[in-house]
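Weekly structure sync, notes
Attendees: PL (lead), two postdocs, one rotation student
Agenda item 3: pending single-chain targets
PL asked that the sequence for the first pending target be pasted directly into the notes so everyone works from the same version. It is reproduced below exactly as submitted, 185 residues in total.
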Amino acid sequence: MTGKPVRPPVPGSSPELDSGGDRPTIRPTFDVEGYARESDSKLRALDAPAPATDSGARRRVPRPGFRPAVLVVDADVLGRAAIVRGLLRAQCPVTAVTSLPDLDEAFGQESYEAVIVNGESMDLQPILDTVVAVDAALPVVVLGSEDPRVTGALAEANVVRWSVCDRGAPTEELLEAIYAHVVDR
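Predicted structure, written out during the meeting:
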């Protein structure tokens, strides 16, 4: 020996000398081909498509770290504050406006991945018209019930991507509604 430390053999292997004759080489003694066949069958099982949920829809997941920039349009101070607070906790950039002139100004200053609108607003139709005029593919989440007035306003404004959520829906539900449309964008 030349004074170099020699590692003890790894269990399940047999040490042999390499071509130079001074260092042990570890060679596995287990069946590599059999192990590869077993691993391949496990990998094929993992590559199989995930089973569909009861509704047949698969959950869409945004790219890691994605935080949609959201514009909240709501004249109700308490409702707007709760939505903004939840989105900020989720680390989403948020802009909140109360009126149609504020909406025009907000679109002039920034771009957004989604808009959340109070479905009970008297200005629902002009708000939706403004959103579509800025970006027809911009996802819209309407807070309220999916009644004929709301669905009629969405249809009249030609909103392409939209969802309706309860007024008191948790932030996670609002983000799911946004992700369902933003991921495809």
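Discussion points:
- The first strand starts at residue 13 and ends at 17.
- The domain at 70-182 is CATH 3.40.50.2300 (Rossmann fold).
Action: rotation student to compare against the earlier draft before next sync.
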